[in-house]
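FOLDING PROBLEM:
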Amino acid sequence: MGQLFSETAAWWHAHWANALWIAVVAALIKLGVRTLRNRIIKAADDGDDTRETGKEKRAKTVAGIVGAVGNAAVAAFVFVMLLRLFGVDTVPLLAGAGVIGVAIGVSLQALIKDVIFGLYLVAENQYAVGDKVKIGEHEGTVHKMHLRVTELLDKDGNLIFIANGSVTSVVNYSLGEALKEKTAKGAALPEVESGTVESGKTGN
């Protein structure tokens, strides 16, 4: 027991600086990801907390994906650096991971398809978190959006997981209502202006 403690103390004495460096870099990356997420959300915030606009919903969705990717990057960085710290040669490991990655990529084409379609869904703003939608045969409110799946909460409180690669048709009720409201406001504006002009003429 004493020998194990001595060996651990000796290892820590020799590598504490590298371990501290890994921890600091990981913390800085997480801080950068968190800052980026907050800036994305803040850039879309219109200051009105009574309602959430489509732009704000989309920003929250993108921020969530950025956070997930950032956390995965931090985990990968820490894992590789710890292996190096313990004396493991990571070059053959990374090379082998590349070969394995190709093999996995071939066998996981459906997963890759889901991720790619997930990026398309976010980029094209077909729907966002909080939108009332109908995806295929399923109807409900978008609860969460991930790179691979969309979580839909139906009227009965059931959580439905839909693979993004299987999304072929989307009916976005929230977006449709927003467009109707915008169109109605635009149509009402000329009437108000016309009424103002006529009132002015009557007063003269």
The radius of gyration is 26 Å. Strands lie at 132-135, 138-145, 149-153, 159-163, 170-172.
